[in-house]
Every structure is written in structure tokens, then in C-alpha cells.
TrEMBL record:
InterPro entries associated with the record: Homeodomain-like_sf, HTH-type_TetR-like_transc_reg, HTH_TetR, Tet_transcr_reg_TetR-rel_C_sf, TetR_C
Biological source species: Saccharomonospora piscinae
GO MF, one annotated term: transcription cis-regulatory region binding
Name listed for the protein in its UniProt record: TetR family transcriptional regulator
DNA-binding region: 46-65
A Pfam family that the UniProt record links to this protein: TetR_N
Length: 212
């Protein structure tokens, strides 16, 4: 095996310039989220405000991102996380767990509370839905599909319609409630999720005595 000569250039995957500081990058992303949650509209958000909040210079931001839009795209990437795993023993219980988690996440977490702030920006909102909301919606879809396969749900059940009936009221209620301080207790404590699941499943769940 031949070795490279002493004067040979060694390829490098690192872009020219200073090594990236993960701490500075996270501070910038966190600052952008903070400003949005405080009510700064997306269109009014400036890189000057972001770096001032992050405590870094503009050069630090522009070494990492070419503009505000690129920062916001990475903000959304940073918010992705796996949804909770339901117990898996009972259709209703699993749906209540997942719908309640969706409610709680939307009203309590930083990533969830961004939803109303992004409604006026179609491109960012679509990316937010794909990266951040869809994994939670897919978990609910999986439970519904499993319910049809196992016979817990009636064969005529349309899972996509049931999915819309379970998630639509949650999203609309959270958006409407975002206009006033605080959030209804039933979104946090699970009462809304339980009532919604029971209402949607009525007429679709096959009673246990019908399975025998």
C-alpha cells in the first residue's frame, strides 16, 4: 500500500474558516425560538435581534447560516423528537394517551407553542407540520390502523377520517386558545382528550362480547 508523499494535500471535509461552536449555534437557535414565543412575528424577526439575544456577534451567525430563513429552517430541524409510546394493551387507552400527549405538548412545550406563530408563513408552517407535528399524528394513525387489523374497530372504520376527527379539534382549540393568556385545564389534565376519544370512537368500537 502506497503512502501519500510528505507534500501531498490531505483532503478535509471541514469548510474553510473557524471550527463551528455547537454552543453558539444552539444559543442562536434558542434565541430565535425565544423571540418568536415572545410574540415577534416571523416577518419582523431580524438577525440583529437574534444575535443580540444569543449574546454573539453577527459574524458568528453568518458563518453558520446565510440568512434568517436558513436559521428558521434549522430551528425546525432542532425541534424534532420522537412521540411517546402508548402502552399497547387497549385501543381507547392508547388513543387517550397519545391525544393527551398532543394536547399537553402543544400548550406546554416550546416546540408546540410555536404552532400559532407560524400560521402566517406557509412554507415554514408546512415544514413545521412535516417535521414536528406529523410524527405525533402518525403515532395516532398507527394505533387506529392496528385497531382495524385486530378487530377492535369496526371493519368499515375509515382511519384517516377518524384521525382527522381526533387531531383537528385539538389543533383548532389550541390555536384559538393561544389568543388568551394561559390554556384550559382540560387540555393539560387529560379530560379533553378522554372526552374527544370517547366521542370519536362511538359507533366504531366493537364491544368485547361481540368478539367472542
Amino acid at each position: 500500500m502506497c503512502s501519500a508523499g510528505a507534500g501531498a494535500a490531505v483532503p478535509s471535509s471541514r469548510a474553510p474558516g473557524r471550527p463551528r461552536s455547537e454552543r453558539a449555534s444552539q444559543a442562536i437557535l434558542r434565541a430565535a425560538v425565544d423571540l418568536l414565543l415572545e410574540g415577534v412575528p416571523v416577518e419582523a424577526l431580524s438577525t440583529e435581534a437574534v444575535v443580540a439575544r444569543a449574546g454573539v456577534g453577527k459574524a458568528t451567525l453568518y458563518r453558520r447560516w446565510p440568512n434568517k430563513e436558513a436559521v428558521l429552517r434549522d430551528v425546525l430541524e432542532s425541534l424534532t423528537e420522537a412521540p411517546v409510546r402508548p402502552p399497547g394493551a387497549d385501543l381507547r387507552e392508547d388513543l387517550v394517551v397519545l391525544v393527551h400527549e398532543l394536547c399537553r405538548w402543544l400548550v406546554e412545550s416550546r416546540s408546540g407553542r410555536l404552532l400559532p406563530r407560524l400560521l402566517g408563513t406557509p412554507e415554514l408552517y408546512a415544514r413545521y407540520v412535516h417535521l414536528v407535528i406529523e410524527p405525533r399524528v402518525s403515532a395516532i394513525r398507527d394505533v387506529l390502523c392496528a385497531g382495524v387489523r385486530t378487530g377492535a374497530l369496526a371493519p368499515h372504520s375509515q382511519t384517516e377520517m377518524l384521525l382527522t376527527m381526533l387531531t383537528g379539534p385539538v389543533l383548532s382549540r389550541v390555536v384559538l386558545c393561544s389568543a388568551v393568556p394561559g390554556s384550559p385545564d382540560d387540555l393539560r389534565d387529560g379530560r379533553f382528550a378522554a372526552r374527544l376519544v370517547d366521542h370519536v370512537l362511538a359507533g366504531h368500537v366493537i364491544a368485547r362480547n361481540q368478539l367472542s
